[in-house]
Amino acid sequence: MVTVFIAFTSCNNASKSNSKSGALASNIAEKVYVAPGEYDEFYAFLSGGYSGNLTVYGLPSGRMFKEIPVFSQFPTSGYGYSEETKPMLNTSHGFIPWGDSHHPDISQTNGEIDGRFIFINENNTPRIAKIDLKTFETTEIIEVPNSAGNHSSSFVTENTEYVVAGTRFSVPIPQRDMPIKDYKGNFKGALSFISVAPETGDMAIKFQVLMPGFNYDLSHPGRGKSHGWFFFTTYNTEEANTLLEVNASQNDKDFIAAINWKKIEEYVNNGGGTMMPTDYAHNVYDEHTHTATSTMIKEVRVVNPSEVPGAVFFLPTPKSPHGCDVDPSGEYIVGNGKLSANLTVHSFTKMLAAIEGKKFAGEAYGIPILNFEDVLAGVVNQPGLGPLHTEFDDKGNAYTTFFISSEVVKWKLGTWEVIDRKPTYYSVGHLTIPGGNSRKPQGKYMFAMNKITKDRYLPTGPEMEHSAQLYDISGEKMELLLDFPTHGEPHYAAAMRADIIKENSQKIYNLADNKHPYAAKSDGDTKVVRDGSNVHIYMTTIRSHFSPDNIEGIKLGDKVYFHVTNLEQDFDVPHGFAVLGQNTSELLIMPGQTKTSVWEPTKVGVWPFYCTDFCSALHQEMQGYIRVSPANSDTPIKWSMGEDIE
C-alpha cells in the first residue's frame, strides 16, 4: 500500500513539474494573456506575401485584428471591386487584381517611429503603397518603372524624406527586345528614391539610380551618424542569367551598395539627371470624396552613378548576402551572407575613412570597390547556418535569424560574442522587434516569422498558415512565449507601441465632410436617375433599412450603379450591401462613407438586396427588392421606402 502511494505521488509531482516547463506553463501563459476588454501593448503589421495585403496583430496576445487590403482585391470589403477603389489597382500593365507584398516600414521623425503611415512594397508588379494609420486604409499606390522584383523596399529614411524601391531583378532599361544571353553589361538595376511630403505623406518618384545589372536584395537606411546614406545588399555580381543557384554563387564576395542619397539629391535639385520616357501609374485615394483616381505618368528622372562622383560605393560582403541591417546608432551595417559561415559587420566610420583615403580594391562599372579589411568592424564567428536578417534592441544587442539551422541568435554589438540562441519552428525568415528598425527600439518582445509550420497546429490539409513565435527579450536570455499562425506568407513585419497609434485612430467618417459626388446624406436625398442605359441609385443605409427599398424600371442591358451611403455616425457600425446576381463583390460601408457597386442584370425578375453585416436586432429585416424588366419594356423608373410603388 505504501509502495502504491509513493508511486502515485511521484507521478503526480512529475506531472506538475512537466506542466511548468512547456510553452503553455502558467507563468508563460500569463505573459501573453490579455484579459477581455484590455488592450495589447503593441501593434504588429505583417506583410501577407502572396495575399498581397497587410495584417494587423496585437502583441503579446498574437491576435489578428484586421487584414488591410493593399495590392489585392478583397471581397470582404469590396476593395478593388467598388468603383471608388478599382483605380487603386491600376498599373501601366492594366488592372492587376493581385500582388505580392513583402516589407512594411513605419514612418519616422528624428529616427523614431511616429505612427503616421506605413509603407509596403509589391514585388511582382513593382509598386509602393502607403497606408494611413489613422484609418488603416490604403490611400496611395505608386508604380515603380524600370524595375522588376521590387524587393529591397520599402524602407524609409529617418525623417521619412524618402521611401526606397530597389529592384531584385535587373532588366533592360529602357525595356526592349533583346537576347537574354546578352544580359551581362546590358541589363541594369534601378534603385528608386520616392519622396514623401512632410505634412500629407504624398509620394512622388524623385530619382532613380541606374546601377550595374546585379540583383539588389534588401536595404536599410543609415541613421544617426550615417543619415543621408542608404545600403543595399547585392547578389549575382557574376551577372548570370541561368541556373542562378550555381552560377550566381561563384564569387567569394558580393557587395553592399552604399548610396549617398543626399549628394544625389543635391545634384538632382540643381537640375542633374536625365528625364527618361516611361509609363507608370500613380493612384491616390481621396478620403473626402471616398474615391481613388489613377494618373499615368510619362517620364522619370534617372541618374547614372558616374554623373555624381563620390555618391556610390561597393562594400565587399561574403557571400550572397541577403539581409542588410543598420544598428540604432548608424555605425554598424550588418551583411548576412546566406552562404557564409560568419556574420560580417561593416563600420560606417571606417567606410568614410576608406573613401577619404581612396582605399579602393578596384571598381565595377566605374563604381569604386572599397577594401574589405578597411571597412570591416568585426565578425560574428560561426553563429549558425543560413543567416538572413538582423534586428536590434535598446541594450546594444543584435538578433539574427538562421534559416537552415532554424534559430534566432542573440549577439553583442562591438564584442561580436554570441550571448544566446533559441530554436524556431521551422525555417525562420524575418524577425521583428518593435522599433527595431529605428534609432530607438521599443521592444521587450521579438517575434520570428517561420516558413514551415508542420506540427505546430492542427493539420488543415497540404496547406497551412505560416507560424510566428513570440519571445521575451527583456532579460539576458530569450524566452519563447507563444506560437501564433499568420495569414499569407509574412516576409517582414513592422511593430510599435500601441499608444502611439491607438488614440489617433479614426472612429467614423464625418458625414458632413463626405464630398462623394453621389452621396445621399439623408433619406430625403435618395433617388434613382436614368442616364441612357446607366441607372444611378442614390441609396442610404441606417439601422435597419435601405432607402429606397423597392426599385422598378430597370431593364436588361442597363448598367446599374448602387451608390450606397452609410448614415451612421456611431463607431463600429458598418453596413453591407449585396444584390442577387452581383458579379463583382459585396460592399462594406463604414459610418459616413459612400461606396459604389456596379450591377449588370442578366435575367428578368425581382431580385432581393440585403445588408451583409449584422448591424442590429432587426438586421434580417434590412432588405429590399429591385425589379428587372425586358429590354423593350416601358416600365418607368420608380422607387419607394415604406409604401407600395403605384
TrEMBL record:
The molecule here is called Nitrous-oxide reductase
Does the keyword Metal-binding feature in the UniProt annotation? yes
- Matching PROSITE patterns: COX2
Which keywords accompany this UniProt record?
Answer: Copper, Metal-binding
Pfam families, A to Z = nos_propeller (PF18764)
Q: Which GO terms describe its cellular component?
A: cell envelope
Family annotation (InterPro entries): Copper_CuA, Cupredoxin, N2O_reductase_N, Nitrous_oxide_Rdtase_Sec-dep, Nos_propeller, NosZ/Cyto_c_oxidase_sub2, WD40/YVTN_repeat-like_dom_sf
The record's subcellular location field reads: Cell envelope
Q: Name one GO molecular function term.
A: copper ion binding
Organism lineage reads as: Bacteria, Pseudomonadati, Bacteroidota, Flavobacteriia, Flavobacteriales
What is the species of this protein? Bizionia arctica
Could you name the domain of life of the organism this protein comes from?
A: Bacteria
PANTHER family, alphabetically? CYTOCHROME C OXIDASE SUBUNIT II, NITROUS-OXIDE REDUCTASE
